Amino acid sequence: MRGHDVFLKSLAAHGVDRIFGNPGTTESPLLDSLADHPQMQYIVHLHEGVAVGAAGYYARATGRTAVANLHVAPGLGNAIGMIYNALKGQAPLIVTAGQQDTRMLRREPILSHDLAAMAAPVTKWSTEVRHADEMDEVLRRAFKIANDPPFGPVFLSLPIDVMAQATANGPQPPARLYRAGPPDPQGIAAACELLLSGREPVIVVGDEVARSGAAAELIRVAERLGAAVWFEGIRGHVSFPATHPHARSGLPFDAAGIRKTLGNADRVLLVGGAFFEEVWFAPGSPFPESARVIQLEASARPAGWNHAVDAGVVGALGASLQALDDALAQAASPAWNLAAAARRESLAAQKAREAAAWQSRQEKAWSRLPISMPRVMTEIARATPANALIVEESITASVDFASAFQLDTDERFLGARGGGIGQGLAGAIGAAVGHPGRPVLCLSGDGSAMYSIQALWTAAHHQLPIVFVILNNREYRVLKHNLDIYRQRFDAASDRPYPHMDLGGPGLGFVAMAAGMGVPGVRVENPDDLPAALAAAFAAGGPRLVEIQIEGKR
Fold first, then answer.
1. Given phi > 0 = left and psi -120 to 50 = alpha, else beta, which region is 138?
2. How many whole angstroms separate alpha carbon 323 and alpha carbon 319?
3. How far apart, in whole angstroms, are the C-alpha atoms of residue 154 and residue 128?
4. CA 156 to CA 235: how far, in whole Å?
5. What is the pLDDT of residues 136-177, one digit of tens each?
6. Range 281-304 burial, b when 16+ CB lie within 10 A, else e
């Protein structure tokens, strides 16, 4: 076999049946051999970042390892941001890039560079295949590392001559690894003792609960404790149902804000995540002064990584949460159970007040022009089919999104983890490829959309049933918010305008851009026209774009 045959057969042996790519000359051996591997579908993209973004979301949407194929140094450079997002989103992903012929690399030919060094900072493992004889071993190891918790991307540099070399080494089968271990009973006992000795427990939940399928166990623990459940500021999955009386919102992005939000909590249970991803520095701990901290993780690396904990338990999250719930049920006193019941009642009343406040917010903003965000999100939620998969990158509209959609299961949602913008349009491609025939709603701001607008062509090329909703306020609204915060925090008070943060002059015409890439679209300015426009887009069954003129920063 040739190196490219071992490569493609290794992918197939590990269950891969599609490649997300943007090809170039050094990928000629791979592209030319695809005809001999008809089971392997190639999802073609017009930009490397879009290809990796789609692959990362495919991996997150399906739980399967994705493969993205790029082109030499500039192509890898174009994709670094999306590889970073895949690392933060813990997507099991193998990224490859064609490299120039090894026999002339020392002469620094055009487009060449040390690709493995370029990719190393944003991957779990980065290497170059030096001979076709090691292709089998490198591929087997790449799949293992990508799927060792916490999941993440690996990178392989594939020189053109190595891909064409002959080898007697065929593809290796995947390793059968059973990674989920039981929790340490002593750790569960310590966690239980700490929780029972407190009066005001809260829970902060991360994406790993959803990835582990442990939401049901988390609900039981939250109810047992009578604890509010807070989310990470940026989340990629739904780990706790939004309609549950204990569900709160995302945490702020600075330690002082987090500490204030957690209030009088004296016990903080962290479950499966990074938890506090700060944007702004604030002195002190994110935890209230009297709080004791318990952390449950599926793998050792995140446990106690950023903060010292009073009890950290590593084990399969579902098993750990179940063991903790059993221990609490057995050890809790009648008085403690009565206090937990009172906390449950208080949380239910607070949830009702929040729902009433959201309803009032909708009513006050319903008739505003341009269209208000509460109305936009309400109308979109009403129009979205119940079986749709939602890819959301609405950024400053995310609070209204969460209030309107009230997502209860992880099967419906993929968020933009990592913070690098442009994920929404690219990610919708991966979500649609991963769930053939299922409708996909992609929510994106106008600024974010321009980072990966080429995704529209891929949606048209592969006829993917995606409704792209572009929220157009003609500005980088999040930057305006952050400039206000900067001026306040750094004593730089100013009445000057926001510099270089408006997207007018000329305005962006998304309907025209979409038409140029084969996606029909419509622009909505009148709120009363929005329901019909959304209904028609979903009914079309193919890629459609709805551009909505929304209100800007007030």
1. alpha
2. 6
3. 11
4. 28
5. 999 999 999 999 999 999 999 999 999 999 999 999 999 889
6. ebeebbbbeebbbbbbbbbeebeb
| DSSP per-residue letters across 97-131 | EEE--GGGGGG--TT---HHHHHGGGSSEEEE--S
Query: Judging by beta carbons within 10 Å of its beta carbon (0-12, 13-18, 19+), is residue 265 exposed, middle or buried?
Result: buried
Euclidean distance between CA atoms 289 and 369, whole angstroms? 46
Give the mean pLDDT of the chain. Answer: 95
Tell me the DSSP string of 492-531.
----PPPTT-B--SSPP-HHHHHHHTT--EEEE-SGGGHH
Neighbours of 166 (CB within 10 A): 10
Mean pLDDT of 333-350: 98
Overall size of the chain counted in residues: 554
Helix (H, G, I), strand (E, B) or coil at 10: helix
Helix (H) or strand (E) holding 95: strand 93-99
CA 252, 255, 261, 267 torsion: positive or negative? positive
423-435 pLDDT, tens per residue?
999 999 999 999 9
DSSP collapsed to 3 states, 174-226: CCCCCCCCCCCHHHHHHHHHHHHCCCCEEEEECCHHHHHCCHHHHHHHHHHHC
Contact between 153 and 86 (Cβ < 8 Å): yes
pLDDT tens readout for residues 266-285 = 999 999 999 998 999 999 99
Domains of the chain, start order: 3-164 (3.40.50.970), 185-351 (3.40.50.1220), 366-549 (3.40.50.970)
Q: What is the DSSP letter of 53?
A: H
Q: Select from 492, 497, 395 the least CA-distant residue to 447.
A: 395
Encoded tokens for 208: 């790993």
Given a contact cutoff of 8 angstroms between Cβ atoms, the answer to whether 242 and 404 are in contact is no
Q: Is the pLDDT assigned to residue 447 strictly greater than 80?
A: yes
Q: What is the pTM of this model?
A: 0.96
Report the run of H or E that residue 153 belongs to, with start and end: strand 153-159
Residue 306, SS3 per DSSP? coil
Give the count of alpha carbons within 13 A of 526, CB side only.
Answer: 4
Strands across the sheet with 18-21, in order? Answer: 41-44, 18-21, 66-71, 93-99, 153-159, 125-128
- The structure tokens listed for 174 are 């995947």
Residue with tokens 């952390």: 295
Structure token pair of residue 41: 């579908």
What number of other Cβ atoms are within 10 A of residue 345's Cβ?
A: 11
In the DSSP assignment, the letter for residue 27 is G
